[in-house]
Amino acid sequence: MKHKGKTNPPGRIKIMNSFYSLMKEKDFHSITTAEIAKNAQVTEGLIYKYFKDKKDLIYQVLNDHFFEFMAKIESRVAHEKTCVKKLEVVIFASLESYADNRVFSKILLLEVRNSPEYFNSSAYGLVRQYAGIILGIIEEGIKTKEFKPDTDPYLLRKVILGAIEHACIGEIIFARELDIDQVSKGITNIVFNGVKA
After folding, report:
1. In order of start, what are the domains of the chain with their CATH numbers?
2. Residues 44, 33: contact at Cβ < 8 Å?
3. Given this model, what pLDDT does residue 5 score?
């Protein structure tokens, strides 16, 4: 995995890569700092030079991935003209990210949300930016009359985010394939065209 930030000492990168590889096979709580250090071929003490604790490590791994994900979303959205198309891009890119990076998905959907510290982390700050992008597009669509004037932007955002996550969570837990194109089209069709005959 790639790592963002001002400094990326080799030891820090080894630790993050070690933790990331262990997360492919195990859950967060069963991974020990001793195991991370052994897998990274560093001393256990070095972990605490770069990270406050194991939770700080998981948040920083999540932060790095979300940084890359946000850059991809912003780049793709910038090429679209309509708000519907922009939201279609966000939905597709989100599903793509969950499907292509199962460790990221596992961390975000299953591991961190039961921890109060997560909501004060820089990773959660990026999650809020991501949600803010969706809200901004919806509000723009209401303003330009692309969406109905009585659309509740916050509720529509919840519908979109909930649909994305529920479309992925079973696939993440049971390691199933996700048909990104089909699911993305299905969500956008229901959200923007409805289900009435």
Report:
1. 1-51 (1.10.10.60), 54-193 (1.10.357.10)
2. yes
3. 47
Q: What whole-number distance in Å separates Cα of residue 173 and Cα of residue 109?
A: 10
Percent of the chain with pLDDT over 90: 70
pTM summary value: 0.87
- Taking only the tens place, the pLDDT of each residue in 59-84 is 999 998 888 899 999 999 999 999 99
Stretch (H or E) spanning 137: helix 122-143
Torsion of CA 84, 90, 94, 96, to 10 degrees: 80
**Helix, strand, coil fractions of the chain, as percent rounded to 5:** 75, 0, 25
Task: Measure CA 100 to chain center.
Answer: 11
- What is the distance, to the nearest Å, from the Cα of residue 101 to the centroid of all Cα atoms in its chain? 9
